Amino acid sequence: MSPPGTPRLELSGISKQYPAVRANDKVSLRVGPGEIHAVLGENGAGKSTLMKVIYGAVQPDEGEIRFNGEPVRVSSPAHARKLGISMVYQHFSLFDTLTAAENVWLGLDKSLKLPQVAERITQVASAYGLDVDPQRPVHTLSVGERQRVEIVRALLTNPQLLILDEPTSVLTPQAVDKLFVTLRKLAAGGCSILYISHKLDEIRALCQQCTVLRGGKRTGVVDPRQEDNAGLSRLMIGAEPPALVHRESKADPAALPVLSVRALSLAKADPFGTELKAIALDVRAGEIVGIAGVSGNGQQELLAALSGEDPRAAAGSITLLGSDISRANARARRNAGLHFVPEERLGRGAVPTLSLAQNTLLTRTAAVSSLGFIAPKPVQALAASIIERYQVKAGGPGAAAKSLSGGNLQKFIVGREIDAKPRLLIVAQPTWGVDVGAAALIRGEMLALRDAGCALLVVSEELEELFEISDRLHVIAQGRLSPSMPVAEATIERVGEWMSGLWPQAGATAEGANHAAA
Amino acid sequence: MLRLEARPAPSQRMALLSPLIAIAVTALLAAVLFAALGKDPVRGLAVFFFEPLNGLRATSEVLLKATPLIVIALGLAVCYRANVWNIGAEGQYLLGAVAGGGMALWLTANGIVLPKVLSLTLVLLCGVLGGMFWASIVALLRDRFNASEILVSLMLVYVAQQVVNYLVFGPWKDPGGFNFPQTRTFDASTWLPPLIERTRLHIGFLLALLAAGLTWLFMFRSYRGFALQVGGLAPAAARYAGFSSRGALWLALGVSGGMAGLAGAMEAAGPLRQLTPHISTGLGFTAIIVVFVGRLHPLGIVAAGVLLSMMLIGGELAQSRLGLPNALSSVFQGLLLVVLLASDTLIHYRVRGARKVVAG
Question: How many whole angstroms separate alpha carbon A73 and alpha carbon B294?
Fold first, then answer.
C-alpha cells in the first residue's frame, strides 16, 4: 500500500502533439484518493486527449504518470483497467440486441460465468443505488439506464479511479441528481473520480477540485465552490461570456401561426427509432419556441418530419404559412421559406470534402441560373460574406468544410440559414460543442432574427440555453409533445418532471391541451 | 525506419503528382520485368512508350483506340462521383454497338441511303439508347430490390456478350459471308467520316473531346451535377438539401450507360463497319482504369485514355517486335492501377523518418 498522502493519480508535464495541433502542452494534474476532481474546458481544450492518455488509448510524447505514487506507462485501456482505472465514455458502447448482463460480460475477462455476472451487477447496482435490471435487452433501456449499465460495467472491476466524460448531457435534471448521489457514495468509499464537463453549476455542486484547460495548457487549479461563474469562465475562455439581453417577444398571439403541426403521428423508420404520437405545435412570427427533452425521445424523428428529409407525414398534419407541406420534399419546403440547421454539421449540414463556397449551394440557390448552371463568383461572394459576418475562422471560401472546427462550422451553417432570411427557422442543438463566445454570437443572431419577424423552433438538450432564448417551451418525451408553457412560468423542476412524460393530461391528446387550438 | 504520418489536410499537389509517380513506378517495374524475360529494358519501354507515337499513322491509331476509352470513362466518372459503382460499362458498350450497329444494318438491308448527318445521328442515338437501356436494368434492380449495382452490372456484361453472339451467329449473320459469324458490312452512308485522310481516325475523337468539355460543365458548373456529387459524398447532406437519391441513381446509370453505348456505336460505325463477336476487347474494363488514373476529372481522363491506349497498342507491338505475349499489356494495366492506389496513400499521409530523439 502507498503511504497516506500519496495522490491516487499524478500527471506531470504531459504533452501530446498531433500533426496540426498541440493537444496537451505540459499539463499536470493531481487527484487525491476519494477526491472528485473536475476537468473543465471548452471543446478542443485538450480534455479528451488528456483522458485518453490516462486511460492508455493515446501515448503522450513526454511527461510522467504516477499511479498511487508508482511511475507507470499505461500502454492500453486493458492495462489501465488492470491498474484500476475505468472510464465511462460520453458515447456508449453497448450492443442494442444483447441484454445488460451480456454487454457487461463481454467486457470482462472470462473468469466469470454469465449468471455470476448478472448476480454481481445486481449487488453493485444496489450498493450504489443504481437501478439496473441485468436481464433487459439494451434497446429497451432509456439513455439514463444505458449510462447506468456503463457505470456498473466500470465498477465491476473495482476501480480506484473512475473517469466520466460529460456524463450528464443525456440525463434529465432529476437523473443528474441521482447520478451525483451515486458518485458521492463511490468517492466516500475511496474511489477517485475524474469528472469532465463544461457545465459550471454541476462542477460546483459535485467537485472539490477543478483543473481548467485552455488551448491544451493548464490555466488553473481551483476549488470550484470558491469561484463564481465569471472567474471560471475567465480561466476557461480567457474572458467573461458576453451577456445576452432577452427582450420580450412581440409576437401577436392572435396571429396565424407560421408553422402549425396537428396530430402528427409517424411510425418509426428504423427498429430502434422513436414513434411520434399526435404531435401538436404552433410557431408564430416573432417568437422562439423551444423543445426540451432527453435525447432519443423523438427529437430526430420530429425534426426530419418537419424538415422534409422524412416526407411520410400524413397529409394535413404540417402546415407552413397556410399551405400543407406534409409530403413536400426538403427543397420544396425550403423554397416556401422553411430553413433548417441540423444537429450533425459534418455529413448532413455540410459535405466534409467540399469547400465552404460549394456548401452554400446545399441550401442557397440564388447563384443557379434558370437553366441550372452555377455562377461561381456569386457563390464565392456569398460564402465570403457569411464568413465575415459570423466571424467564422476559416481559410476562406475555398476551405474544405472538414478543415473547420465544430464551432466555426456551426457558425457558418447557422449563418448560411439565417442569411437566407427564412420565414421559419428550425435549429437543432444550436450551440452543441460550440465554445462560449461562439454560442453567445449564435444565440444573439437567433434573437435578432426573431425580432426581425421570423418564427424560430429550437430543439436543444441544454435547458439553460432554452431558458435563455425561448419565449415558450414544449417538452418531448417518448415521442409525445407536451403542451407549451411560457418560459417565464417554467422552472428546472417542472421541465424535468415533464421530461419523464408527466405533464397534465399527458394521457389525453396533446392537441386538446394546446392552448393555440381552436 | 520510415513511417507514415497523417497529413492535417489532403495534399492537392500529391493528388496531381500521384498518377505521374504511378506511371514512373510502373515503367520501372516494366523495365525490371523486361530484364527478367531476357529482353532489353530500353527497347521494351520504347515499344510501349515511344513506338505507339512514332509517326502520324501510329499516333492516329493511338487516338483511335483512346476514343472509346475516353467516352466510356467520362460516363463512368460521373457515375463514380455519385457513388454508384457501375463496373459493367463493357456490357453497355456491347448493347450500344448492337443497337447502333443494328440501326446501320437495318438501313443497309433496306437500301435506305440517308444524308450522312441524319444516318449518323440515328446510328449514334440508337447506340446511346441501347447502352442506357442496359444500364437501366441495373438501376431498376437497385431501385426496386436494392440489388448491388456492382454485381448486377458485371453479370450483365456476360449476358450482353451472349446477345451479341446470338445475333451475329443467328438472325443478323451475313447471308453472303461464308457462314462466318459476322453481319454484312454497313452501307458507306453510315460510316463515321475520317478525321485525317488515309488514317482510320474518325470524327468520333472530336466527339470524345466535346464530351469531355460537356462533362466538365456538368460536373463543375451545373446544379444537377453538383447534386449528384453531394449524393455520392454525403448521402445525409443530400437528403438535407432535398436532392433525390433515386434520381441520382437513375441519372448516374443513365449517363454512364448512354456514354458507353455511344462508344459502342462509334466503334461499330467507325473502324469496324460491321458487327462480329469480337467488337470489344475489354474496353469497358480498361476504361475503369482510365477513370482512376484520370482522377475522375475530364481532363485527366483524356490524358489517361491516350496513355492506356498506348499500353494496349504497345502490348500488340510487344507481340510482333519482342515475341512477348499480348497479356503483357494486361499485366501493365493491372500494375498501373495497383501502384496508383498505393501512391494515393501519399495524398493523405506523408513519409517521415522515425525520430530517434523525442523533441523537447
Answer: 48
Whether the CB-CB separation of A405 and A377 falls below 8 Å is answered with no
Closest partner residue to A351 (CB to CB) among B6, B233, B358 is B233
Average pLDDT over chain A, rounded to whole? 87
The phi and psi torsions of A21 (rounded to 5 degrees) equal: -150, 145
* Residue B357 φ then ψ, to 5°: -100, 135
Q: Which grid cell is B224?
A: 444537377
pTM of the full predicted structure? 0.81
CB atoms within 10 A of CB A135: 10
Query: CA-CA distance, A387 to A471, in Å (whole number)?
Result: 29
pLDDT averaged over every residue in chain B: 91
- Residue A336, judged by CB atoms within 10 A of its CB (0-12, 13-18, 19+), counts as middle
Please say if the pLDDT value at position A511 is more than 60. no
Question: What are the chain B neighbours of A307 within 8 Å (beta carbons)?
Answer: 240
Q: Tell whether B233 is within 8 A of chain A (Cβ).
A: yes
Indicate if the alpha-carbon torsion angle A505, A506, A510, A516 is positive or negative: positive
Residue-wise pLDDT for B107-149, tens only, equals 999 999 999 999 999 999 999 999 999 999 999 999 999 999 9
Beta-bridge partner residues of A161:
A85, A192
The cell numbers describing A172, all together, are: 434529465
Q: Do domains A9-237 and A242-337+422-518 have the same CATH topology?
A: yes
Question: Count of CB atoms within 10 A of residue B1's CB?
Answer: 7
The residues with which A426 forms a beta bridge, in sequence order, are A340, A457
Beta bridge partners, A497, equal none
Sequence spans of domains, chain A: 9-237, 242-337+422-518, 345-421
Grid cell listed for A213: 484547460
Q: List, as ranges, residues 200-219 from B with C-beta within 8 Å of A.
A: 217
- Interface predicted TM-score (ipTM): 0.83
Just give the CATH number of A242-337+422-518. Answer: 3.40.50.300
The length of chain B, given as a count of residues? 360
Specify the CATH architecture of the domain A9-237. 3-Layer(aba) Sandwich (3.40)
